[in-house]
Each structure stands twice: as structure tokens, then as C-alpha cells.
Amino acid sequence: MTRIAPSLLAADYLKLGEEINRMESAGVDYLHIDVMDGHFVPNLTFGIDMVAQIAKSTRIPLDVHLMLAEPERYIEAFANAGAAIISVHVEACPHIHATLKVIKQTGAKAGVVLNPGTPAESLTSVLSEADLILQMTVNPGFGGQSFIPETLTNIEKLAIWRRENNYSYLIEVDGGINQETAKQAKQAGVDILVAGSYLFQNTNLEEAIANMKK
Ligand code: DX5
Ligand code: ZN
């Protein structure tokens, strides 16, 4: 069953509570929260207190995507704030195996993220440690960009390796996901679809979610 994770980056920030309630009523599986530091990516977004307030206001599990240099410094804080999943970029983590262990020790699920230019092979030695692998299907930093189809190769490999070795990680995609690209991602083996603009700009949310799951 495909799971849906709306990205709050595309929400109306002045109505954040209402936006979250709308997603909760539509039955989404996670709320995806993009944390950017203006350094690892050229944009700034939400911080720890924001995640803590959101966690208190909803029962939807929070899927926290850290686009930070040195994300290790903030893992405990985001876990205490209420993150259910914490994902770090492999490009930002020289000790990715240890970092995934640190995330798990907090009780959160441990995710590792691949930029479009990073080969799936860079994760070979942490595949048994990861609870989730997030393939970026755009270059991280901004919502509303176009899906990069070449990233599907990584997803296909991750799905094959999981099948062959009985790994338990979930595969998630993030960036440029709409009805059409969701179909391609699912065919490649994806479990969780992140979508920002496609869901928040849709007047019929239930229909948009149903289209993504189809
Ligand atoms: C981009 C973020 C995404 C973004 C996706 O760096 O990681 O989560 O919100 O937005 P859309 O779905 O509009 O491409
Ligand atoms: Zn994201």
C-alpha cells in the first residue's frame, strides 16, 4: 500500500494549523517537514520549535527531512521535539553508519537521503541499518521543481537489493511528485510519496491522494 506524506513546505504558513487538520482529515500517513540550513542547501526553513509545536497539534507521524550540514548536532533535539522519522543526507554525513545508529537510539526511525547525483551504491554498507531510504527526485532546497527521471534508476536498484537480501527499509521519493510521476516512482518500487505543491495547491485533496495511490 502506497503511503502519502504531504510536504509542509508548500503549506500556507499563516494557516498552518488548518492545513495540518485538512491533511489529517484526508487520511495522510505522514507529515513531511523540510528542515533547511541555508548551507547544505541554499534555503532556510523550519527549526526544532516548529517541529515540537506541530507534534503537539497532530497525531500524524512526523517525517523530518534534515537538509543540514553536520545533522548529527541536531538529531537528539528533533527526536525530543517529536519526530517519528529523522532522515539525514549521506552527502552531509562522513560517518553515516554511526549517524543512523544514533538516530535509532533516540527511538526515531532512521532515514538516509540520496541527492539526484549520488549513486545508490554509496549506501551499500548501510542498507541493513536504514529504516528508510529517501531518493531526492529534484535537487533539494525548493518546492515546485520538475521531477528528474534519471533518479528512477537508483530506486529500481534499491528495490531489487531489498528483494534479494530481505532488507526492511522503506523507499521514499521527494520532489516533483504528481499523479504522473507518482506512477513512475511506484513502478520503480517506492513505498512513500512525498508531495508538496501537488497536494497543497489541489482544491480536491481526497481526489489528489486517491490519484497518487492509484
Ligand atoms: C525539496 C523538499 C521537498 C519539497 C517537495 O528540497 O525536500 O520536500 O517540499 O516539493 P514539491 O512536491 O513541490 O516538489
Ligand atoms: Zn523533503
Automatic annotation (TrEMBL):
<dbReference type="GO" id="GO:0019323">
    <property type="term" value="P:pentose catabolic process"/>
</dbReference>
<feature type="binding site">
    <location>
        <begin position="174"/>
        <end position="176"/>
    </location>
    <ligand>
        <name>substrate</name>
    </ligand>
</feature>
<comment type="function">
    <text>Catalyzes the reversible epimerization of D-ribulose 5-phosphate to D-xylulose 5-phosphate.</text>
</comment>
<feature type="binding site">
    <location>
        <begin position="196"/>
        <end position="197"/>
    </location>
    <ligand>
        <name>substrate</name>
    </ligand>
</feature>
<dbReference type="InterPro" id="IPR013785">
    <property type="entry name" value="Aldolase_TIM"/>
</dbReference>
<feature type="active site" description="Proton acceptor">
    <location>
        <position position="34"/>
    </location>
</feature>
<dbReference type="InterPro" id="IPR000056">
    <property type="entry name" value="Ribul_P_3_epim-like"/>
</dbReference>
<feature type="binding site">
    <location>
        <position position="7"/>
    </location>
    <ligand>
        <name>substrate</name>
    </ligand>
</feature>
<keyword id="KW-0413">Isomerase</keyword>
<protein>
    <recommendedName>
        <fullName>Ribulose-phosphate 3-epimerase</fullName>
        <ecNumber>5.1.3.1</ecNumber>
    </recommendedName>
</protein>
<dbReference type="GO" id="GO:0046872">
    <property type="term" value="F:metal ion binding"/>
</dbReference>
<feature type="binding site">
    <location>
        <begin position="141"/>
        <end position="144"/>
    </location>
    <ligand>
        <name>substrate</name>
    </ligand>
</feature>
<keyword id="KW-0119">Carbohydrate metabolism</keyword>
<feature type="binding site">
    <location>
        <position position="65"/>
    </location>
    <ligand>
        <name>substrate</name>
    </ligand>
</feature>
<feature type="binding site">
    <location>
        <position position="32"/>
    </location>
    <ligand>
        <name>a divalent metal cation</name>
    </ligand>
</feature>
<keyword id="KW-0479">Metal-binding</keyword>
<feature type="active site" description="Proton donor">
    <location>
        <position position="174"/>
    </location>
</feature>
<feature type="binding site">
    <location>
        <position position="34"/>
    </location>
    <ligand>
        <name>a divalent metal cation</name>
    </ligand>
</feature>
<feature type="binding site">
    <location>
        <position position="65"/>
    </location>
    <ligand>
        <name>a divalent metal cation</name>
    </ligand>
</feature>
<comment type="pathway">
    <text>Carbohydrate degradation.</text>
</comment>
<keyword id="KW-0170">Cobalt</keyword>
<keyword id="KW-0862">Zinc</keyword>
<dbReference type="GO" id="GO:0005737">
    <property type="term" value="C:cytoplasm"/>
</dbReference>
<comment type="similarity">
    <text>Belongs to the ribulose-phosphate 3-epimerase family.</text>
</comment>
<feature type="binding site">
    <location>
        <position position="176"/>
    </location>
    <ligand>
        <name>substrate</name>
    </ligand>
</feature>
<keyword id="KW-0464">Manganese</keyword>
<dbReference type="InterPro" id="IPR011060">
    <property type="entry name" value="RibuloseP-bd_barrel"/>
</dbReference>
<feature type="binding site">
    <location>
        <position position="174"/>
    </location>
    <ligand>
        <name>a divalent metal cation</name>
    </ligand>
</feature>
<dbReference type="GO" id="GO:0004750">
    <property type="term" value="F:D-ribulose-phosphate 3-epimerase activity"/>
</dbReference>
<dbReference type="Pfam" id="PF00834">
    <property type="entry name" value="Ribul_P_3_epim"/>
</dbReference>
<dbReference type="InterPro" id="IPR026019">
    <property type="entry name" value="Ribul_P_3_epim"/>
</dbReference>
<dbReference type="GO" id="GO:0006098">
    <property type="term" value="P:pentose-phosphate shunt"/>
</dbReference>
